[in-house]
Amino acid sequence: MIRKNKHQKKKEFEEQLVQKFPYRCPYCDQPISYDQFDLKVGENVIQCCCCKKTYIKVVSNSYEERG
Ligand SMILES: [Zn+2]
Known about the structure:
Structural class: alpha+beta
Strand content: 15-25%
Strand order of the largest sheet: 1-2
Mean pLDDT: 77
Bound molecules: zinc ion
Number of helices: 1
Helix content: 10-25%
Distance between the termini: 54 Å
Order of helices and strands: HEEEE
Largest sheet: 2 strands, antiparallel
Low-confidence stretches: none
């Protein structure tokens, strides 16, 4: 008989989840994915896909990606 005893690194996975935790709509608390928006440095008008309300998301310079 073969016994498998794998030690899974659960901690790393949890840390990744925390980093990817989405921003939530301030009105309906719906998680918003900003991949669908063309975010620029400054104020961005975001429309929630759930409640259709708009709000301002401020993007700082550090968010800007090179390339
Ligand atoms: Zn909403």
